[in-house]
Design goal:
The protein has a single domain, classed as Na+/H+ antiporter like fold (Up-down Bundle). Helices cover 76% and strands 3% of the residues. It has 16 helices and two strands. Helix 2 crosses helix 11, helix 4 runs parallel beside helix 6 and helix 5 packs across helix 13. The model has no long low-confidence stretch (mean pLDDT 87). InterPro entries: Mem_transp_PIN-like (IPR004776). Its main location: membrane. It is found in: Membrane.
């Protein structure tokens, strides 16, 4: 199959095209509603709060409600290992990109580059395209993200030592609790107390009592509805937030444009190259769904928490705001490109 045929096949894949269109259209709808005054300034924050405290925890937990097999277990563990290694790697390789800036700008730009909006921006897109398996991989990948965001990110931006409140934030927020609970059920479902469940074909199967998709459908169904809110509400919130910020002033900031290219273009490329080498050498193999999940997560714009650190500790607050806006716009444009690229990589058969 030629490159042109691969591109054509990707652009005619209804699942890919509809997922990209849904993302872009709903973000634009949020932007339109904010510009027209249909959404107030508080709507974006309110929607993001619902997504982070209700929808994403339900989405994360539900993604683990599936049978375990050796292949998925291996992929999940490889994603976990890479989710820790990549942040260590980025801590070192991000430095050369910003050597020409003063120390404060270097620190801010490096932290903003290392940590993207994987939870709020990445997971809804991954879920829309790659389904429960993609969400499960992204939730596992985010374990390393949260460890480094609330430790290295905080220390680098504040200049202070690690505080207890960050440990609480790291482990006691709803998404992390749902992720670890879901991961526990998925990993140990064969060892938990079992229940007999009648399947659709009339057969009787044994499932762990915490596999609520089988043992408590009455509970799983409302959680499915809540999980379904994650993507549209997140995209509406992103659009609404973009509608509040002046693009004109941010567009003249060359540093923010440069940062956006590094964050949304170069960081995903680093992941693809390194994972290709590790997969070919059989050191740390990932399949195309795991690769695609990781790349989309790393192509996300500035993390909200990282931006909050910069503003809270008065470190380049204006630069951070501009970088957040421009990287969001760049990411919205580039995510479809990355999805097409990843589909072509899948057809080539590198992974």
């Amino acid at each position: 199959m030629s490159l042109l045929e691969m591109i054509t096949a990707t652009l005619t894949d209804n699942n890919i095209v509809s997922s990209i269109a849904s993302t872009v259209f709903i973000i634009l709808l949020g932007f339109f509603c904010r510009k027209k005054g249909i959404f107030t300034a508080a709507v974006g924050k309110l929607l993001s709060k619902v997504v982070l405290t209700v929808a994403l925890p339900a989405l994360a937990f539900n993604s683990f409600m599936q049978d375990i097999n050796p292949t998925m277990l291996k992929q999940g563990m490889n994603v976990l290992v890479w989710g820790i290694l990549i942040y260590i790697i980025l801590i070192f390789i991000s430095k050369p990109f910003f050597l020409s800036y003063n120390k404060d700008k270097q620190d801010v730009l490096r932290v903003l580059t290392i940590f993207g909006s994987t939870t709020f921006f990445g997971i809804p897109i991954v879920g829309a395209i790659y389904g429960p398996t993609g969400v499960m991989y992204s939730s596992i990948f985010n374990i390393g993200y949260r460890i480094f965001l609330y430790s290295y990110g905080y220390i680098k931006m504040s200049g202070l030592k690690m505080e207890l409140k960050n440990l609480k934030t790291m482990f006691l927020n709803p998404i992390v609790i749902a992720t670890f609970l879901g991961l526990f059920v998925w990993l140990f479902q064969g060892y938990l107390p079992q229940m007999s469940v009648a399947t659709e074909d009339g057969a009787i199967q044994q499932f762990a009592f915490l596999r609520i998709d089988q043992t408590a459908v009455w509970l799983f169904k409302p959680m499915t509805y809540l999980a379904g809110l994650a993507s549209p509400l997140a995209w509406l919130s992103i659009g609404s937030t973009l509608g509040e910020i002046s693009f004109k002033s941010a567009a003249t900031d060359k540093t923010s444009w440069y940062y956006s290219v590094v964050k949304v273009w170069l960081v995903p490329i680093v992941n693809i190259v390194l994972l290709a080498l590790l997969t070919v050498s059989h050191i740390l193999s990932v399949d195309t769904v795991a690769l695609s999940t990781i790349v989309i997560m790393m192509a996300t714009p500035t993390a909200t928490v990282a931006a909050a650190y910069a503003i809270s500790f008065d470190k380049e607050a204006v630069l951070t705001s501009n970088a957040s806006l421009l990287s969001t716009i760049t990411s919205v444009v580039m995510i479809p490109v990355w999805i097409i690229t990843l589909n072509i990589i899948d057809k080539i058969g590198i992974f």
